[in-house]
Amino acid sequence: MHNIKNICCIGAGYVGGPTMAVIAQKNPDIKVTVVDINEARIAAWNDADLDKLPIYEPGLDKVVAEARNRNLFFSTAVDEAIEAADMVFISVNTPTKTYGKGKGMAADLKYIELCARQIARVAKTDKIIVEKSTLPVRTAQAIKSILHNTGNGVKFQILSNPEFLAEGTAVQDLMAPDRVLIGGEQTEDGLNAIQALVDIYATWVPNENILTTNLWSSELSKLTANAFLAQRVSSINALSELCEVTGADVNEVAIAIGKDSRIGPKFLKASVGFGGSCFQKDILNLVYIAKSYGLNEVADYWEQVIIMNDYQKRRFAAKIIQTLYNTISGKKIAFLGWAFKKDTNDTRESAAIYVADQLLEEQANIVVYDPKVNAHQMQSDLNYLNTRSEEDNNQYLTTVSNPHQACKDSHAIAVLTEWDEFKTYDWQRIYEEMQKPAFVFDGRGILDKEKLETIGFQVYVIGK
Ligand code: NAD
Ligand code: UGA
């Protein structure tokens, strides 16, 4: 049996940071060290000013304040932390490959393999290795083969423990998860390792919410969960266009179908398209895996979720262009929101990036206000697409720190993120300060359409 006293987590990102903060808070007797090669990120995690944590998540500052420097540590000393640990979580990024075989589809596992090799090189005592990153099914096999060929006699058990938190609600999700999933080898040593991790979660998660499975079921369940969630968004988004042409209201349809307990009400909010670092990446990965086993119909089925999502983003941009008399060259268009959802500063794969890119192609002047995203991040998101020069992106998309400044003198406002504060603005004042006719394109369905129309706005809402 294992008695875990020392945990190391490799990767201090959106998953590693919050997850380990909660594990440390709930297990004060276990020393938890989160390590990363990114020095700036570690410095930010250690900043005395909790507003400077590298990740914005409601409630995270309190958890970090309680556990940090008690039993929670952030460090760049990766080797030392691995060597001292009984259990090592791997929580590094697994982006879509941008080169070689599987380019644009498969998960890039180079960071995972580097971690495995580093653990193999450094470890002098037996360890449990936990896959926290989202990985293709059967990755544990590759990790195992690297770790078991060191020849130094150290024994490893590999577990899969995918993370299901959503950004913006990470702390809440970690405190009361729908389930914790732990997969491991169905051998005596494997089952002991599973139990060691169950014991850590059991300090705050009810036993019936801790599921244990074999390794492959656990790995595949993570990709499947994200695919099902994204599929719901694409399904309702597909219907949003049908609502627009038939006079149905997508919100009313969502409520009507969601009342069926077999369907359920969640994840039926029509939008400008899902973003975030994982949905697209994980579905593409699923499609790639299916194709690699020759399951072409399975691959095509899931790929459609992405195709629909890309279409939804393009459709929203096209609606803006068409409504503004098919010419937006030189027109100021205000963006409210850049993050991929509210309550996060994360912009990865945000729909705003793609909508902006399309409008910039038509020579619009975009001015963005987002409560948590800075100008540098927006520029780097756009530059990453490589559609035009960095100078042009910088000139035609600007960032302001005040929503009124963004909207003043604009021809149109586009709502790209569902930040709550957008609902409470003085829309009368905004109207008075805009060019007329004043257009609002609500890509999140959060504003009061009738109220805005009474003020004088011309309003387009997804799915209405
Ligand atoms: P992230 O990019 O925010 O963080 C990953 C961190 O790992 C980075 O800071 C990077 O510097 C570090 N890193 C990479 N290689 C390293 C190495 N060899 N040694 C030390 N540090 C290293 O990524 P994330 O959003 O935290 O996602 C991590 C994994 O969790 C991914 O597989 C993702 O699919 C999965 N996941 C993410 C979320 C989410 O909401 N973001 C939710 C569930 C699962
Ligand atoms: C998602 C899953 O919800 C998590 O369970 C999972 O752990 C995580 O991916 C991951 O693996 O990274 P996240 O991407 O943080 O979490 O946020 P979601 O709340 O799922 O939203 C994803 C995108 O879908 C956002 O752009 C959101 O605005 C959009 N969305 C969501 C809709 O457009 N409509 C909805 O009804 C729900």
Describe this structure in words.
This protein has 464 residues and is α/β, with parallel strands linked by helices. The protein has two domains: 6-213, Rossmann fold; 215-464, NAD(P)-binding Rossmann-like Domain (Rossmann fold). The chain has a six-stranded parallel beta sheet with strand order 3-2-1-4-5-6, sandwiched between helices. It starts with 5 loop residues before the first strand and ends with a strand. The chain is globular, with a radius of gyration of 24 Å. Helices cover 44% and strands 14% of the residues. Helix 9 (215-246) packs parallel to helix 12 and helix 11 runs antiparallel to helix 12 (296-323). Bound molecules: nicotinamide-adenine-dinucleotide and uridine-5'-diphosphate-glucuronic acid. The site of uridine-5'-diphosphate-glucuronic acid (UGA) has 21 residues, from helix 9. Uridine-5'-diphosphate-glucuronic acid binds next to helix 9.
State the name of the first-level CATH class of the largest domain.
Alpha Beta
The first-to-last residue Cα distance is: 59 Å
The H-level CATH homologous superfamily of the largest domain, spelled out, is NAD(P)-binding Rossmann-like Domain
CATH topology of the largest domain: Rossmann fold
From the alpha carbons, calculate the radius of gyration and give it in angstroms. 24 Å
Mean model confidence by pLDDT: 97
Helical residue percent band: 40-55%
What is the total number of structural domains? 2
Helical element count?
18
Approximately what portion of the residues adopt beta-strand conformation? Answer: 5-15%
Coarse shape:
globular
Task: Give the biggest sheet.
Answer: 6 strands, parallel
Bound molecules: nicotinamide-adenine-dinucleotide, uridine-5'-diphosphate-glucuronic acid
The low-confidence runs, each spanning 5 or more residues with pLDDT under 50, are: none
Strand order of the largest sheet: 3-2-1-4-5-6
CATH architecture of the largest domain: 3-Layer(aba) Sandwich
Instruction: Briefly note the structural class of the backbone.
Output: alpha/beta
Q: Kindly state the number of beta strands.
A: 14
Quaternary assembly: single chain
Binding site for NAD(+): 11-16, 36, 41, 92-96, 133-134, 167, 278-281, 348
Binding site for substrate: 163-167, 222-226, 262, 269-275, 340-341, 444
EC number: 1.1.1.22
Active site: 278 (nucleophile)
